[in-house]
Design brief:
Layout (H helix, E strand, L loop, with lengths): L1 E3 H4 L9 H10 L3 E7 L5 E13 L6 E6 L5 E6 L9 E14 L6 E6 L3 E3 L2 E3 L2 E2 L34 H4 L4 E6 L10 H11 L22 E4 L7 E8 L8 H9 L7 H13 L3 E5 L7 E6 L5 E3 L5 E3 L5 E4 L4 E4 L3 E2 L12 E7 L2 H11 L4 H8 L3 H18 L3 E10 L7 E6 H8 L5 H10 L5 E3 L2 E6 L9 H12 L21 H15 L3 E2 L5 E2 L1 H6 L24 E2 L4 H13 L5 E11 L10 E11 L5 H14 L4 E5 L5 E11 L2 E9 L1 H6 L6 E7 H4 L18 E10 L4 H11 L3 E10 L8 E10 L8 H19 L2 E2 L2
Parallel strand pairs: 12-15, 26-29
Antiparallel strand pairs: 1-11, 2-11, 3-4, 3-6, 4-5, 6-7, 6-10, 8-9, 13-21, 13-22, 14-21, 15-18, 16-17, 18-19, 19-20, 23-25, 24-25, 27-28, 29-30, 30-34, 31-32, 32-33, 33-34, 35-37, 35-38, 36-37
Helix pairs in contact: 5-6, 6-9, 7-8, 10-12, 11-12, 13-16, 19-20
């Protein structure tokens, strides 16, 4: 949002420097992204009076004697055709900086510093300047675009700096406006804030005008799409005289980057900038049927806009039509068929409130943007719509470019533009701020912001202007108070439940970091997914309709359909992550994610859901197996000094014979298994893939488990390897348990090989284990170890019916 300082001063008595005002705006919530002086690149240019002007023979040049007041008198060579004795022109002194132009004296090529020189043998001590060389246009100063010297006023003081005369001493504030404050997308909106922060009065806009008795008989306005246009105002102006706008208006528009077109068109642009309300002026003689109709476009309907572009519309676009055709693309741009021309003698002014989402979507879909569409996309209030029409009609009278008729048609859905009463507790406002703001300061601040406050005990009553739709409850009042009272008054304090610590990680953080380091040490990479997923993710898992995972929280306003549910499991996102890697020819990998799932207690929600921290591990690759994944479960167990056991299980999305529940102290804490062939085919997964999910909430109760010190054995350990031929339905865990319970000296059992082949027989496989025997009070002998081995084999044969592979 661009706001010239000179324009702001039209409404507020600003008695501080631009830099001080920048700081004050920042303190009350408005970041000035750039503060720029209009003529910051120009310096040491003064008013010069040409005393003598003699032609240089056989050239187009003149040698001039120029009086620069207190700076002295200089000889300057000049080639402009309008240089003359007695004229006052900008004189760039030696050392001055001006804009360098090309040979056409129009194209800007950069900056240059003026130096002493010679032209055709004559000394030249400075340069007389054109408007282009000072960065001035006709809209900023009359005659500035002439291809010659810029003629200064006769009353200009000789030797004075030209910046104040040309308006180059003005400042432009480029202010970032937050999305909740579209009322400040205008110069007057910013002026309201400036007045409040400086504790000054703001000058009310002159909205007065006089209607004559002329009427446009039979003229009507209908709105067929009130859901897209809740208010539409049309006013007829006759006896229009198209011409130039006054310099003050052209200058203000130029400072915000808008070029002057004609007085009537400039008025619409001026009101847009001053109040943030887009307006349009139709040449009334081109409006057929003596009517305006606001409706959705017909599919395939076409319009040619003012920039001579043709668009094919659909029923999602809003158009302004006369009795036969569209004459404007609502909120975006007028039609070429109702353009204001030099011959225009009657005008129909339009001010309307169009819904921001419709204008934004239409502008993007059509690829057509304008200052109006940008303003509507940010938000326009009906209060401003009414105010803007009055302001435009006042300017018509002030500029003398037309007469205001008594034909005024306003169609609305009945929304009030009067202030809305709000009552809040002062105590609650102060509690939000954490400090006590004196009542008199609250009254002063809210009064300066036009809230017309009153206090009755603890009850604060304010009248919220219709342009402040962001004000909804007491926290909003607290924000308004503190941004004007000053954030420096806020006293840093602890929250009621806060504790002073020496810093560092707490037990949960340390435990999670320990777990992450262990997983990374095993070659896994951490992955992070959104906390949302898609209904299609649940369908991917082939879950039954009554599955717990399907009882997911639906978002009211999701980013898109693929992120419309709060996730109840991490598995589908991990499976899709493995599939994406395989599609990109990454055919092996290990990924883990430590994140929350969200389990509602009731649907629809009546209280916050249960957020369960969960670990998910995905492993994929030709050389990976169920036991690789089981190794990651063991890493978790070892990290917290736990023992996991495993029981065969079934999951709709996992292989029926390679799925197990993970048990800790008799409680199920998770599962692991191989991704089913059906899902692998659906996602084009090319290598075996496995997934594990652990409820870390259940594991977390062991975070503070004391680690028992195990001294190194005094005597050498013994290792033995076993290879068994077993039925496929016998699990690794049952074999491990059989080994451990047969001998108390067994301290570790590891599966190191699995083999399946036709020579073993149907439904058979070979499983090889490495077993560690650790002595306690005496050294093992070979006979002792062989005895332990026999006990293990006997126990496995009795309980599982398995024997050593021959």
């Amino acid at each position: 949002m661009l706001a010239p300082l000179s324009w702001l001063k039209e409404y507020v008595d600003i008695d501080c420097t631009p830099q001080e005002l920048q700081d004050k705006l920042f303190s009350c919530g408005f970041e000035v992204e750039e503060l720029k002086q209009v003529g910051e690149d120009i310096h040491d240019v003064v008013v010069g009076l040409v005393k003598t002007c003699e032609p240089i023979p056989e050239t187009h040049l003149h040698v001039c004697t120029v009086d620069a007041g207190s700076h002295g008198t200089f000889q300057v060579c000049c080639g402009a055709d309008n240089v003359k004795a007695g004229g006052k022109f900008p004189l760039a002194l030696v050392g001055a900086q001006v804009i360098m132009t090309g040979k056409d004296h129009v194209t800007v090529e950069g900056l240059m510093t003026i130096e002493k020189g010679k032209l055709r043998g004559y000394d030249s001590e400075g340069m007389l300047c054109s408007g282009v060389e000072l960065g001035v246009s006709d809209d900023l100063f009359p005659g500035a675009s002439y291809n010659g010297l810029l003629v200064l006023p006769d009353d200009a003081e000789v030797g004075a700096d030209v910046k104040p005369i040309l308006g180059l001493d003005d400042w432009i504030f480029d202010i970032a406006i937050t999305a909740n404050r579209p009322d400040c997308q205008s110069v007057y909106g910013i002026a309201r804030e400036v007045a409040a922060v400086l504790n000054k009065e703001i000058k009310p806009l002159d909205l007065s005008y006089t209607e004559d008795e002329v009427k446009k008989d039979g003229f009507t306005v209908t709105v067929d799409a009130p859901e897209l246009c809740p208010r539409y105002i049309a006013h007829y102006v006759h006896d229009v005289k198209i011409g130039e706008s006054p310099l003050w208006m052209k200058r203000r528009l130029a400072l915000v980057g808008i070029g002057s077109i004609s007085n009537v068109v400039d008025i619409t642009n001026y009101v847009l900038t001053e109040l943030g309300q887009p307006m349009h002026a139709f040449d009334s003689s081109y409006i057929e049927g003596n009517m305006i109709n606001v409706r959705r476009a017909n599919n395939g309907e076409k319009i040619v806009t003012l920039d001579e572009k043709e668009f094919e519309l659909n029923d999602q676009n809003l158009v302004i039509c006369d009795g036969k055709k569209p004459v404007a693309l609502a909120g975006i741009m007028g039609g070429l068929n109702s353009e204001i021309l030099d011959t225009t003698t009657e005008v129909m002014f339009e001010a309307a409130k169009f819904m921001r989402d419709n204008i934004r979507k239409s502008s993007r879909a059509l690829g057509q943007a304008s200052d109006s569409s940008a303003m509507y996309a940010k938000g326009v209030y009906e209060y401003t719509t009414v105010m803007a029409m009055k302001r435009a009609l006042h300017l018509i009278e002030e500029l003398g470019c037309g007469k205001v008729s008594s034909t005024h048609v306003e169609v609305s859905t009945g929304n009030s533009i009067e202030p809305k009463e709000m009552k809040v507790s002062i105590e609650r406002v102060n509690k939000v701020l954490g400090i006590t703001v004196p009542n008199e300061d609250i009254i002063r601040i809210l009064k300066s912001l036009d809230f017309n406050p009153s206090v009755n005990g603890d009850e604060l009553t304010i009248q919220v202007p219709a342009y402040r739709e962001d004000m909804e409850s007491y926290p909003d009042v607290a924000e308004e108070v503190i941004r004007m009272y000053g954030y420096e008054h806020v006293i840093p304090t602890f929250m009621p439940t806060a504790q002073v610590t020496m810093g560092g990680f707490d037990l949960r953080q340390m435990s999670e970091l320990k777990l992450k380091r262990a997983l990374c040490g095993a070659g896994a990479y951490e992955g992070i997914h959104y906390s949302f997923f898609s209904p299609s993710d649940l369908d991917l898992l082939n879950l039954p309709e009554d599955a717990m995972e399907r009882k997911a929280i639906k978002l009211i306003n999701p980013i898109n359909a693929d992120l419309s549910l709060m996730r109840t499991t991490l598995a589908p996102q991990m499976i899709r992550a493995m599939a994406r890697n395989q599609k990109r020819d990454l055919l092996e990998g290990k990924i883990y994610e430590l994140g929350n799932i969200f389990i509602p207690k009731d649907l629809p929600l009546t209280e916050y859901p249960d957020e369960r921290e969960t670990l998910c591990v995905g492993v994929f690759g030709e050389n990976e197996s169920f036991y690789t994944l089981k190794g990651f479960a063991k890493i978790v167990a070892d990290t917290f000094d736990l023992e996991f056991t495993y029981e065969p299980s079934e999951k709709t999305f996992l292989h029926p014979y390679q799925t197990a529940d993970i048990i800790c102290d008799g409680e199920k804490v998770g599962y692991l298994g191989k991704v089913s062939y059906e899902i692998m085919d659906e996602l084009d997964m090319r290598v075996p893939s496995f997934v594990l999910e652990l409820d870390i909430r259940l594991i977390s109760k062991y975070y503070d488990k004391e680690q028992k010190f195990m001294p190194l054995p005094k005597f050498a350990i013994e290792k033995r390897d076993f290879a068994f031929v077993v039925d496929k339905n016998i699990t690794c865990a049952s074999i491990e348990n059989g080994i451990k319970e047969a001998c108390k000296y067994v301290t570790d059992v590891k599966l190191f090989d699995v083999y399946e082949g036709i020579q073993l027989g149907a439904n058979k496989r070979s499983m090889a284990f490495s077993v560690v025997f650790t002595p306690q009070n005496e050294e093992f002998t070979d006979e002792m170890v062989e005895g332990y081995v026999k006990k293990i084999l006997k126990n496995l044969d009795n309980k599982l019916g398995i024997s050593l592979r021959s």
